[in-house]
Write a structure and sequence with these properties.
3 helices; about 45% helix; about 10% strand
């Protein structure tokens, strides 16, 4: 069983927040296939694990564009 599947089995969440996308946009221009693999592949893996576990949580997918604060207020260190 995958670590994701194990975590879902243990927690049985009602809501899943999926924030697993590429967070540094310039990196996606350097390696767009890696960015797509992480963004789309990660979402597909999450949804497939939920399907296999026969769960029905609300899944919230968000990116930095939906961050409640301006990105400048969250500087990288």
């Amino acid at each position: 069983m995958s670590r994701l599947g194990s975590a879902l089995s243990v927690s049985r969440p009602d809501i899943v927040f999926h924030l697993g996308a590429q967070s540094f946009v310039p990196r996606s221009f350097i390696d767009p296939l890696e960015a797509m693999s992480g963004n789309c592949g990660g979402t597909a893996n999450l949804l497939e694990a939920i399907r296999i576990k026969d769960m029905d949580p609300v899944v919230v997918c968000a990116s930095a564009a939906q961050c409640p604060r301006p990105v400048a207020a969250c500087p990288l260190r």
